[in-house]
Amino acid sequence: MSPESPRPCHPPVRRRRGRLAHRLSAALLFALPPGPAALAAPLTPAAAPPVAELERSWRELEQQLRELDRILPPEALPPSESAPAGFETLRSAAAASGAGRRPLGLEEALAIAFQANPSLLADRQEVAAAAAELQGRLGRWWPRVSAVAGVGQGQEADTFTVPRGNGGLGLGPNFAAGGLRAADGRAVDGPFYVPSGGEGTLTTGTGQVGAGLEVDWALVDFARTPAIRAARERLRQARSAYATRLRELQLKVSEAYYQLQKADQLVRIREADLRNDITILAEVLDLQRAGLVPRLDELRRRAIEATNQERLVQALADQAVARRRLAVLLDLPAQTVPAAGDPIRLQPRWPLDLDRSLLEAYRDNPELEAILATREALARDRDATAAALLPRLSLFAAAGGDLTRTDQWNIQGDCCGSAVIPSLTTAGSDWSVGLTLRWLLSDGGSTAAEARALARRADAQTYRWAARRNDIQLRLEQAFFQHEASLASLSAARRGVVAALEAFRDVKLRYRTGLASEVELSLTQDQLISSLVQRLSATVDVNLTYARLLRELLPMPRDPAGPVPARLTLEPGPAADRSGAGP
Predict the structure, then answer these.
(1) Residue 145: phi, psi to the nearest 5?
(2) Enclosing H/E stretch for 148
């Protein structure tokens, strides 16, 4: 109807409202509890409830509506208010472009993660540390050679006091006063005579420089071999943990990428749904202004449009979160926004049956290998600890030389009979070689207790291995059954989309020709959107469950220096051909 056409008269609308009131009144009459008279006699116009009962029912209905208004929270925005600011923020985040937006394929994302993921880099450092520890343990087979050097200087001041001399000891003329004769015949004291009450002072300064070599070689050490084996097992455990981290990282990146693809597609579906709602709402507003439809149709369409706008807002938020989750896994800068560059491609059917998948998952599994390596390392640590109670035979050798300078000054007094040299330099050298036997006889039982503790920890790893094997089995079985269910759901969802799309085309044509109501159009549109979302979810679930199955069987290198291939599918080999579970 054009704007220039006259508005239709309102009696038909009033008659429609009259019929609605009549139906509502009849419904309320039937809803009233019947009295005894009504049960005894058939219902006739004369036996209808009085007007007072009808008014009381209306008052009760009005009271219930007021209570409902009190329960509902107040509206922060009027119905005609536009979208909030948060919606525009999500819109701008979704439309990020330019240098910050970086479209990535799944293989490219995996390659970046294998090079830059912080957790994976930490595991590589752990492998390098375990290798260095093993090299250190291997060095215990060789002797320890040490260079020793030193320099020092000191000074000493001595004061001598002789309360009683040695002249009365009868040790001969050399120790007696006047015991010797000079060339002129005079009596002189012996050179070693010290008189009673004699005193003397002497200051001595010493400077010394020395250097040498020391050798210590453990010829017999029963703890050496177990310690080396324990270090080798820890290296194997670190490499197995690195391979496990590669599997986990590939699964996390694949899941994040598939979820981002799903979020992008869901935003497109919600945007198309909202655009269709806006178009239908505009048509309803035109019909309502022309008086062809009641205001109820307009309110219903506004409510549907608000609900779909809310779903679009949530889809935009999920898209932003999915992008950040992928960016964190790839360790991208904060200003870089990753985007899914690949379209959604359906992964093939899993090529192995369940039993064969379990056997392949147990074979050379890095998770199980890490636990076995840990158990073996603890067992070897126990042997090394117990070996401390056994004898240890070592060869030691040392050789060196030193240079000493001694200066004496401040010489005073009449004693004592030692030679005083103002300056003396002494040079010397020495060497030694021998064997050392060390045998710990008793330490209060501490070494034996430590060995028992390590043995218990090694036994605990056996139970952890069984628990981890059960976890692997459960994960693989869940992924396998969910993969089969996702394939079946995808087949049903595809049929549902075809039927829902055809139904929507039909009802939309009937609505425009006046043969279908707005309610039928809304229900059919909701069914179409639901079918599209179900097909999208089923497709992504197929890829997710395939990635989880692949995580349990995908071979990964254990050497951090080797290349890491990005494999998205399991190559069907002889095992897959024998399984009979092909696509």
Answers:
(1) -110, 125
(2) strand 144-162
Bridge-based pairing of strands 144-162 and 198-220 is: antiparallel
Cα dist from 184 to 177, 180, 181, 211, 440, whole Å? 17, 11, 8, 53, 74
In the block, tokens 């922060």 appear at 76
In DSSP terms, 83 is beta-bridged to none
* pLDDT > 80? residue 335: yes
What are 435's strand-pairing partners?
Answer: 395
The alpha helices in 72-211, defined as continuous H runs, are: 85-94, 106-116, 118-138
Asked if residue 129 lies in contact with residue 201, where contact means CB atoms within 8 angstroms, the answer is: no
Q: Please state, in angstroms and rounded to a whole number, the distance separating the CA atoms of residues 209 and 362.
A: 66
Comparison of pLDDT for 55 and 101, the residue scoring more: 101
Q: Is 242 exposed, middle or buried (0-12, 13-18, 19+ CB in 10 A)?
A: buried
Instruction: Give the pairing type, strands 180-181 and 187-188.
Output: antiparallel
The contacts of residue 304 (CB under 8 Å, 6+ apart) are 277, 522
Q: Which amino acid is at 344?
A: I
CA gyration radius, the chain = 49
Full-model pTM: 0.73
Element holding 23 (H helix, E strand): helix 11-31
Residues 117-167: pLDDT tens digits?
999 999 999 999 999 999 999 999 999 999 999 999 999 888 878 887 777
Q: Quick one: pLDDT at residue 498?
A: 93
The helix/strand/coil state of 286 is: helix
Residue-wise pLDDT for 406-451, tens only, equals 888 877 776 665 677 888 888 989 999 999 999 988 888 899 999 9
Residue found under tokens 């639901």: 530
Q: Which pLDDT tens digit goes with each residue over 91-120?
A: 565 555 445 788 999 999 999 999 999 999
Percent of the chain scoring above 70 in pLDDT:
81
Q: At residue 33, does pLDDT exceed 50?
A: no
CATH number attached to the domain at 111-134+226-380+448-579: 1.20.1600.10
Ordered by start, the domain boundaries in the chain are 111-134+226-380+448-579
Closest CA to 541 of 361, 347, 252, 355: 347
Helical axes 354-362 vs 446-512, angle rounded to 10°? 140
**Distance between CA atoms of 156 and 174, rounded to whole angstroms?**
29
Pairwise CA distance, residues 509 & 503, whole Å: 10
